[in-house]
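stuck on this chain:
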Amino acid sequence: MRCIDLFAGAGGFTEGARLAGARVVWAANHWPLAVQYHQTNHPDTWHECQDLQQADWRAVPAHDVVLASPACQGHSRARGRERPHHDALRSTAWAVVACAEYHRSPVILVENVPDFEKWVLYPAWRDALRRLGYAVSPHLVDAADHGVPQNRQRLFLVCTRSRRPLRLSLPRRTHRPIADVIQWDAHPWSPILTPRRSEKTLRQIAVGRAAHGDRFLIPYYSSGSGLTGRSIHRPVGTITTRDRWAVIEGDRMRMLAVPEARGAMSFPPSYVLPSVHRDAMHLLGNAVCPVVAADFLNELRLAA
């Protein structure tokens, strides 16, 4: 199975393809740093650093599957439930249509946030694919159901050149706890009781300790699990592009470390990421969970 990876980012789709025994022959992203690390981890793939709205699709090699994870910021609730967001981020999805129009790829697999279907132009985008001969089948999945130690709801659109939408029978696995990837010897820790620590955070920690003991997580930028914290014996909440989860142990705390976030996304420990924490978290927060991608590709192979 030959694939191309649009909006390749950290390489979650490509790593998932590798796990499924597929080969990604071409990958593209507009951010040079993302391309650099994608190439480091997948040196046998041909890489392009470009804005796909200006792509020359004639230069893209033959393939069986298009893997595409268009920018989700324009569709995410993180921008506000009711605020419209009109910018170039939304329009990246049209590159999928442009690729399909030229290549008539047998299968297109698109990943995005669930609110992608609420995009005002989603009906037109879906209709464009249908007019090109594709049946579009939405699959809403939580990465935790695939054995990833993270609750991460994402929409996968399985687009096939068939008369009817293809519904995949995806595996469901036991939920893994985030404790599996937490490294208690990671640094830097800081004392919980400091003059600058907010009363809200201290209350969160006190209630969380009563509910979960000396080791647990609290969210920094979300109302979810905000009052009681989150047990380390369940999957963590969604990993985002900035520090969101704090690890609590006794009288000290720290933010989730990059190796822990990498594990929470189901990337292998050997997967190379930037040494700058902010850059690594940005790549991870935007990535597709490789294990979930592999499950889709394995089922697509069986359905072929």
Residues 194 and 202 are 10 Å apart (CA to CA).
